[in-house]
Amino acid sequence: MRNIFLFILVLIGIFYVRRALRRTGRADGQAADEARGAPAEAPREQVVIEQMVACVHCGLHVPESEGLHGAGGFYCSEEHRRLGPRS
After folding, report:
1. Which of 35, 47, 75, 86 is a good FRET partner for 59, with 20 to 30 A between their CA atoms?
2. For the segment 29-75, what is each residue's pLDDT rounded down to a tens digit?
3. What does each C-alpha distance from 68 to 44, 71, 82 come to in angstroms?
4. b/e map 22-33, b = 16+ CB within 10 Å
C-alpha cells in the first residue's frame, strides 16, 4: 500500500514539473535538443509597422507602400490619382 502511494506522489510530481517547464517556454523536446547542443530556434521576422495614409479622393486609408503619391496628395489607386482630389 505504501509503495502505491509513493508511486502516485511521484507521478503527480512529474506532472507538475512538466507543467512548469511548459509555462516557461521550454518543452521537453526543446530541453533535450539544447542539452545535445542543437542550435536554438531561429529568431522570428520582425514586423514592420507602416504608416496608414488617407486617399485625398475617397478617404480610404491604405498602407503608404501600397498607395500612390501624386499632384495634390496621396491616392489609393491609379484611377483616383488620375481623377485628382475630390472637391
Report:
1. 47
2. 555 555 566 566 677 788 888 999 999 999 999 999 999 999 889 99
3. 30, 10, 11
4. eeeeeeeeeeee
Note whether residue 73 is domain-resident. yes
Give the model's pLDDT for residue 38.
58
Task: Answer yes or no: is pLDDT of 22 > 70.
Answer: yes
Does the reported pTM lie above 0.70?
Answer: no
Look up the domain containing 19 and give its range: 2-36
Q: Does 47 map to a domain?
A: no
Q: Would you say residue 18 lies in a domain?
A: yes
Over the chain, what HEC string results? Answer: CHHHHHHHHHHHHHHHHHHHHHHCCCCHHHHHHHHHCCCCCCCCCCCCCCCEEECCCCCCEEECCCCEEECCEEECCHHHHHHCCCC
For the chain, what is the domain count? 2
